[in-house]
Design brief:
The complex is a heterodimer of chains A (about 400) and B (about 240).
Chain A (H helix, E strand, L loop, with lengths): L2 H14 L1 H34 L9 E6 L1 H6 L11 H8 L4 E16 L2 E10 L3 H5 L2 E5 L4 H5 L4 E5 H8 L8 E4 L2 E10 L4 H4 L2 E4 H7 L8 E6 L5 H15 L5 E4 L2 H43 L1 H9 L4 H38 L5 H31 L3 H5 L3
Parallel strand pairs in A: 3-8, 5-7
Antiparallel strand pairs in A: 1-9, 1-10, 2-3, 2-6, 2-9, 4-7, 5-8, 6-7
Helix pairs in contact in A: 1-13, 2-11, 2-13, 2-14, 4-10, 11-13, 11-14, 13-14
Chain B lengths: L1 H6 L5 E13 L4 E13 L3 E5 L6 H8 L7 E6 L2 E2 L5 H11 E4 L11 H11 L7 H11 L15 H13 L5 E5 L7 H16 L4 E6 L2 H4 L4 E6 L2 E2 L5
Parallel strand pairs in B: 3-8, 3-9, 6-7, 7-8
Antiparallel strand pairs in B: 1-2, 1-4, 4-5, 9-10
The chains are: A alpha+beta (about 400), B alpha/beta (about 240).
Chain lengths: ~400, ~240
């Protein structure tokens, strides 16, 4: 039997009996669609979860610093260390790193209406807010232009704003900091660390220019793309630092307990979803097996007749297997179309797109799975059909 | 084999059955259905096998079509002992040398007439470009070309049986084996089918072997073999 005849007859047969197959097609299409969406969008969804640091307990932020103060306490004579620009550039290139933000800290005091207040000032760049998921509670946060322009602007922690002004609506106020006047541009929100709520933030460039005895950034916040990246990024940091500068007294801190907790919850959720997909696809497979068995029974006379016309066992086997494959592949194609639609919708909703490679590898996997399902579920009924004896088949009622 | 086929052109012997025995087992023993049947059919001959129900007529026909194996005996078709063929060669024998017409007008219900006639050509590996001409020629033999694209389940009983005859013819077989082909038809349609069989056999290339219990239909054949209790008697005509 020619291949084109086989395909034509099988597709025609499936089309003509399409009403029998809707349930099976739907189950496989849903399974493949869900699988495609899950695999394609999984990382994008994790990235979106990652944007809500509060939800995941900030586990994707790695804190790294040089323990310069510890050196002093131990009376060791070591040069204070800090993150050099080539190191920062190299760290940005590490796979799984979303953004990094170097920070310098020192204690200082400010004066407002003759009252003096002592607090910690943090020198940060424009990426800091994004890395820590902070937002403006009131006013605004300074950005790239203020950092480049070395502006004398300060963002206050909410507790410090309350302490100095008694309220949070402080944008436009001016405070004296290290004998310079700074304009308060806003109050930072989203802070869970009390030390930061009691502190102030100024552009890292302004800090270097104007704060007497200012230090280089000896702290670094590294935000990973997803929680799956944290472990290998944490391992990569000391190696990257060592490759670019002295790395003595480098400390890398990860909230391992919280990270494991988040990964565990994520693993369970993913497992349940994949289990549901597997169950749906298995139902589809059993469905194919069932409808093909029913088809073999209801088409027994047809099988006998075809054998009487000269069809060989392998012709009958090939036809039923091909029908089963048409069914599973057709359903998989519908599922992939459905998955693509969902991927487009979720991408639009999340505002980020996965790479096309992931989708196409899902497409390949979906089709491969459909072939396995079609052959696996259709083999036994097809063998039964091919082994029928002609006379008993033609006399079947 | 080929030399036999060459010499058996015209009115030579096409089918030769010698001492054919068929027993069915019922679990307690063997029940004889055909007892040493001997039969010779010439090319272009139209032969009827008659007898009451259960006499073994259909069994003999199925053995002639290699749908059932005999218990013993020999069966030559065109000089070839076809009982020695393996399963695959038996299928090839059916698609090239035999055409079947069954009593119950067995057409593929959801396929149209064209598709029904195309199946034997597909299994015989006929080139797709040659198929339409052969299908049209076959359907014109039974005067149903106007029904070519009608669904099988939209045809009348008589039309369905004529399509079955066309399908049996489409591969130019050596022999058409018909099992009660007029059994479910009225007299007028029954005779119409017999007309087609007579035309086919009259051309001389194809023999027709039909099984019937209707004496009127059997009388239109060149020879009538009575079969009773598994014994095939000498032809009455």
């Amino acid at each position: 039997m020619r291949l084109d005849d086989l395909l034509r007859i099988s597709i025609r047969q499936v089309y003509r009996y399409r009403r029998r197959y809707w349930g099976v097609v739907l189950a496989i299409a849903l399974g493949v669609g869900a699988f495609t969406t899950m695999v394609t969008m999984g990382r994008e969804v994790k990235k979106t979860f990652n944007q809500d640091l509060e939800l995941i307990g900030g586990v994707t932020v790695i804190r790294s610093h040089f323990d310069n103060y510890h050196n002093l306490n131990n009376y060791k004579v070591m040069r204070p260390n800090w993150f050099h620009p080539p190191t920062l550039a190299a760290l940005r290139q590490v796979s799984g790193v979303w953004e990094i933000s170097p920070v310098a800290v020192r204690w200082t005091s400010c004066t407002w209406r003759r009252d003096s207040y002592s607090f910690q000032v943090m020198a940060v760049d424009e990426t800091f807010w994004q890395v820590r998921s902070f937002w403006a509670l009131t006013g605004r946060l300074f950005g790239l232009s203020e950092v480049i322009g070395r502006k004398r602007e300060v963002v206050l922690g909410s507790r410090l704003a309350q302490r100095i002004f008694g309220h949070l609506d402080v944008a436009g106020e001016v405070i004296e900091l290290e004998q310079d006047l700074y304009r308060v541009v806003g109050v930072v929100g989203g802070v869970t660390d009390m030390d930061l709520a009691h502190g102030a933030f100024i552009p890292i460039t302004t800090f270097a220019d104007r704060i007497l005895g200012a230090q280089h950034p000896d702290r670094l916040y590294v935000r990973c793309v997803t929680w799956d990246d944290v472990e290998h990024v944490a391992k990569a940091i000391p190696m990257v630092v060592q490759a670019n500068q002295p790395a003595e007294q480098l400390r890398v801190e990860v909230s391992w307990q919280a990270l494991n907790q988040v990964k565990k919850v994520s693993w369970w959720i993913e497992s349940f979803i994949y289990l549901a997909i597997f169950a749906t696809l298995s139902l589809g497979g059993f469905g194919i097996w069932n409808v093909m068995m029913a088809a073999v029974r209801s088409r027994t006379r047809e099988i006998g007749l075809k054998k009487a016309m000269g069809a060989e066992d392998r012709d009958i086997l090939a036809q039923f297997i091909t029908e089963s494959l048409c069914l599973s592949l057709g359903a998989a194609l519908i599922g992939i179309g459905l998955g693509r639609l969902l991927v487009e919708l979720i991408s639009y909703w999340l505002g980020s797109r996965p790479s096309e490679e992931i989708f196409f590898s899902c497409l390949g996997m979906g089709l491969f799975f459909a072939v396995v399902l079609g052959i696996g579920a259709g083999l036994y009924p097809s063998l039964q059909a091919s082994r029928m004896e002609v006379v008993s088949a033609t006399q079947y009622e | 084999m080929n030399s036999f086929r060459l010499t058996s052109q015209g009115n030579g012997i096409l089918i030769k059955v010698v001492d054919l025995v068929k027993n069915f087992s019922n679990g307690q023993g063997e029940i004889p259905v055909l007892r040493k049947v001997n039969l010779q059919i010439h090319r272009g001959e139209m032969v009827a096998i008659t007898g009451p129900s259960g006499s073994g007529k259909s069994t003999l026909l199925y053995i002639l079509g290699l749908l059932l194996p005999p218990t013993r005996g020999d069966y030559w078709l065109g000089g070839e002992n076809v009982l020695n063929l393996d399963r695959s060669a038996q299928a090839a024998f059916r698609r090239r040398r035999v055409g079947f017409v069954f009593q119950s007008c067995d057409l593929l219900e959801n396929s149209n007439v064209y598709e029904n006639l195309e199946f034997p050509l597909i299994y015989a590996g006929v080139n797709p470009r040659e198929r339409p001409a052969r299908i049209i020629a076959a359907i014109e033999r039974v005067n149903l070309s106007h029904r070519l694209y009608h669904r099988a389940n939209h045809l009348s009983g008589g039309e369905r049986q004529r399509v079955a005859v066309a399908r049996a013819l489409v591969n130019h077989p050596d022999v058409i084996l018909a099992d009660e082909p007029t059994g479910q038809l009225d007299r007028r349609h029954g005779h119409l089918i017999m007309d087609h069989f007579q035309e086919i056999s009259a051309e001389g290339d194809t023999s027709v072997v039909l099984v019937t219990h209707d004496p009127e239909m059997a009388s239109r054949c060149t020879r009538i073999y009575p079969l009773r209790d598994g014994i095939l008697y000498a032809p009455e005509k």
